[in-house]
Amino acid sequence: IDAADIAAFLGGRVETEHFVIHHATPPAVLAELPLLVADHELRLAQVAAVFGVWPSRKIHSYYFASAADKARWMGARDVEMAKPWRREIYLDHRAFPHGSLRHEIAHVVAAEFGDAIFGVSARRLLGLPVLVNPGLIEGLAVAADWPGSYDRSLTPHQSVRAMVELGLTPSVDDLLSLRFFSFASARGYATAGSFLRYLLDTYGAAPVRALYGNGGDFAAAFGVGQDRLVAGWRAMIATITLPPGASEGARERFRHGSVFERPCPHAIRDRRVRAGQHLAAGNRAAAVALLRQVCGVDPGEPRHRLELADVLGDGGDAGEGDEAASIWRELADGEDQTSTLRAEAANRLIERAGRAGDWAEVGRRLAGLAALPLDDTWRRQVEAKQLALAHPGPAGVALRAHFFLVSGAEDALRQANLAVTLEPTLGLAWYLRGLRRLDLGDPAGGAADLERGLDLGLPGPSFQRNAARRLAVAAYRAGDHARVEAAITALGADTMGEIEHALARDWQQRLGFARDGHL
Predict the structure, then answer these.
(1) For strand 122-125 and strand 88-92, is the pairing parallel, antiparallel, or unpaired?
(2) Which are the contacts of 194, defined by CB distance < 8 A and separation ≥ 6?
(3) Distance CA 331, CA 349 (A)
(4) Which end of the chain is less packed: N or C, by CB atoms within 10 Å?
(5) From CA 44, how far away is CA 18, in angstroms rounded?
(6) pTM above 0.70, yes or no
(7) Distance of CA 109 to the CA centre of its chain
(8) Confidence class of residue 327 from pLDDT cuts 50, 70 and 90?
């Protein structure tokens, strides 16, 4: 299979000033194609501004309709990837804005100052670029895609601070070598990205480009040794103050070891994939049997038990339902588990109790969750459910049904509609209806509802920030630039964190790009 085969399979082609985009042609992709095309050029402009370099030739982007198609045609199922030496990126379809686009573009632009053969960071041995530096390769892409996922509550700098507090920080010596692969990607990418971003912000792009090009010779690139640069970075990290509970809330993300430390990773992956296929075909018994095998092969990984319990509790008989509840209780009440995993398991028990009408158990479990150190997203979910459970107004029944009794986004939207009808001055009801309309592909309606919720008032800053973020995306998709600017204003510079500031800058750039065709 070569590039021409993949392009022929995808079927669509759009050429811009800096890209040739080969794209799949199902309706879901075609509906967002103009946004996708514009986003390619915008993200390239952002990367070029960070690196001080533009690509010398057009980048070919291969955009698949699904991860399965991408796996079939070029091998990578669950990751996006780039081939810098070919100036190519490979992505599968995601909701706009695509979370990996800028990262993969950064890999390709970095080829302009990487080694002459493969376009990556590598030291030469006998004239050949054989000592590849994966920490510099991935760290620089993370540093360019700053701060990364807006739906994640911590930036890479903040993530490193959390790892310091948890005692999980990798050493830079290890990261900037092939030992990079001995760390879980969540830890390695965040730490290397934070360090490279510090170098970019402190010393500028030129020495960082030189460091990337020479494969990690700090003295040659910066005129000072690596130890001195690392000390400056660590001093900066030490000044960061995290919100209460943030480091413990991040423990689940960082607790895993590398793939090389896990028992039988390919066998486990194969069984989990086959279990999913059996579920899709309606063969629950075969799926359960495979997931039990996974738990037996890797008994120390609680997520395997959580996955098994989810299948047992979804459509099984009474005995399987009781077994699922037992696993969820074990995980939710296990003080040796991370707070995030405990929250996920407790949430399953809350849903079960809600369907049974056991509101006392729902309240007890929610109170237990509220006492855990959770990240902003989880805490907002807990607070919203507590508000719904205790709400005394006419919309209370609909709010409780929305959170505890419905199955699927359409049922949830019906209950949110009812809450708005019963209590039209309740900002939370408009907020929930806006989110559900976004879930169902109505960006204009979702944006209007979120704006109304902000106007009426939401329970706290976390709700306000989330509404403004989601409003910005929805309004941009709907072509309503005035609402995007209103959302940025609603974020409020005095209360914004680093991610919110970056979001505002990002959307201001998007607006300029959409109106003028350039930055």
Answers:
(1) unpaired
(2) 142, 143, 156, 157, 159, 160, 233, 237
(3) 11
(4) N
(5) 8
(6) yes
(7) 22
(8) very high
